[in-house]
């Protein structure tokens, strides 16, 4: 079985959950200094790339046959 459908399903669920958490925390930061908001969104904008890269790498591997 191909790993691609599993990776797509996991990626969609995980990214949706991550976005919901990021937005919920971001709402609490409203009214904070603009540098705090900028730093927060810059960090969370890049943090998701590491697990996404790992998931894509896993999906692209050939299963042992």
Automatic annotation (TrEMBL):
Pfam families listed in its UniProt record: DUF2842
Residue intervals passing through the bilayer: 6-26, 38-60
Keyword Membrane listed: yes
Entry superkingdom: Bacteria
Keywords attached to this entry: Membrane, Transmembrane, Transmembrane helix
Annotated protein name in UniProt: Uncharacterized protein DUF2842
Organism annotation: Humitalea rosea
């Amino acid at each position: 079985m191909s790993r691609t459908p599993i990776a797509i399903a996991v990626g969609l669920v995980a990214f949706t959950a991550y976005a919901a958490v990021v937005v919920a925390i971001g709402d609490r930061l409203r009214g904070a200094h603009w540098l705090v908001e900028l730093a927060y969104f810059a960090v969370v904008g890049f943090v998701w790339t590491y697990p996404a890269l790992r998931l894509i790498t896993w999906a692209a591997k050939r299963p042992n046959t």
